[in-house]
Amino acid sequence: MDKMKLSDYYYDLPEELIAQDPLKKRDESRLMVLNRGEKSITHETFRNVIDFLRPEDCLVINNTRVIPARLLGQKEVTGGKIEIFLLKNLGNDTWEVLTKPGRKAIPGASFVFGDGLLKATVLEVHEDGNRVVKFQYDGVFEAVLDKVGTVPLPPYIHHKLEDAERYQTVYSKWNGSSAAPTAGLHFTPDLLEAIRQKGVSIAELTLHVGLGTFRPVKEENILDHKMHSEYYKITEEACHKINEAKKKGGRVIAVGTTSCRVLESVAKETGEIFPEEGNTEIFIYPGYRFKILDGLITNFHLPESTLIMLVSAFAGYDFTMEAYKKAVEERYRFFSFGDAMLIL
């Protein structure tokens, strides 16, 4: 079945099903469970995810942390307003960024943020419209960013977030993301501890999520879509846990499409995995042959997004679209603060 057309991944979503606020308790989200072998769909509460895990399994989580990547400032000379989103740290205080409006951000232009605590100078403009800027500041960049920046919420969330930590996973460690790995938002420390007590190993990796994750696919032939690049790192300890689980006949279950993309980027054809860091542009769509993934925990994704294509590659196109139709009928909550899906 040829599912290379963008329109194949459209589904009708009533706007009121887009979750605007996180639930009071993270693990009280709903959980749709898809069994690929039986083609069955059942409905649970997220905390019951533990019932579907076996002692030999390995759960793989993304420990990235969202930074205050949205900066509102002024052009140094004219005072004209500018908005900058940090996309990727290129080292030496240079970052790849998104600017609004772009016409002001020509090479050599300078902008100031937080009454001059932070200054950015545009070095170059990329083909896709992204800019490379160099920052100047006194002290530690992260500390300055905490003062002048805000955590950017996805464009479909219109409510103000009362507690910024609710857009972080409870296991977030390493600063660098412009968006949260949202499948992980459902876990609590107690649930993770219960999963460990059951004998399931938990391996951590890092993928810094870029705003490219929200970039719409515009080409009708999805193969013409250029994937964004994201930095990842997986350690020896994590690889050992994953390889051991495979050896014992356990399943490797990724929490989120971000964890899945790292695993599939680094796994060998044999299904083994070794420590690595770098940038991945992997694009997973139906027809892709998974090398290591046995299960996926994920939220409900935007129509015509690369993420729903990834889910379709893993669960099967027809089964995925049936599940999404059912999720709309059953009034599941969608997107970042929404409910979750477990695919086994």
Task: Briefly summarize what is shown.
The chain is of the alpha+beta class and about 350 residues long. It contains six helices and 18 strands.
Description:
- The protein is an alpha+beta fold.
- The chain folds into two domains: 6-66 and 163-343, QueA-like (3-Layer(aba) Sandwich); 70-150, Beta Barrel (Thrombin, subunit H).
- The chain contains six helices and 18 strands.
- The protein has helices at 141-148, 189-197, 236-247, 257-266, 306-315, 317-329, and strands at 30-35, 40-45, 58-62, 64-66, 70-75, 81-91, 94-100, 110-113, 118-125, 131-137, 149-150, 174-177, 201-207, 230-234, 252-255, 276-280, 295-299, 340-343.
- A nine-stranded mixed β-sheet has the order 2-1-18-17-15-3-13-14-16. A six-stranded antiparallel barrel has the order 5-6-7-10-9-8.
- The model has no long low-confidence stretch (mean pLDDT 95).
